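Why do we care about 3D structure at all? Because function follows from shape, and shape follows, mostly, from sequence. That is the central idea of this module. The next example makes it concrete: a single protein chain, its amino acid sequence, and then its structure expressed as tokens.
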Amino acid sequence: MTDISPAPVPRELSLRERKKLKTRAALVDTALALFAERGFDGVTLDELCEAVEVSKRTFFRNFASKEQVAFAPLEALWNGLRDDVEHLSFGRRPVLEVLQDALLAALARMDDDGAVWVTRVRLSQELAERTPSIAAYGLQYCDRTSAAIEATLRRRLGLDPGDPRPRLALDLVIASFHIALRAWTAEPGALTHPGLAAELRSVFATLPGAVTFMGD
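And the structure:
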């Protein structure tokens, strides 16, 4: 097993970086609100940019498409996990457990006092359920990101390219999240970040039984 380097100390963002994050947030929030109100196909890119008061050039500096801006809330979560894998400490623990903890840590960073991310995820999921192009973008993004995480795991752990274990462990974590997300969004009442985290932990707890359970 290769040596595991510590995670870098977060640096303070520059003014330019803070302004870019603010613009991205405005694009995501405005897009999700407009898509929810008028439908995904009922909002043009020109109308979205006009509502946020940015140029199309600025939009494309931040997002490749309307589908990406609609999927952005979950993309932020998975981008965080993808980057974290580069610095994970594996020790002598099962890789599956390390990935579970890493996803929970990435999810914890999405928490905020105003429940902004929770609202974004809810709107994004509702849009994806009725908009095939957003759902397709999500699948393509998941494939690309899974491949990137798998490649990092293989490199850091010194594994043979034909070893199926890193991808199997990663796919179990991803599947667990999607199961938790479906259950969470189906809950009555207001959705909360702690509720999603609890749902995810509950699904993780069932994984050992899922591997060994038998039908009648």
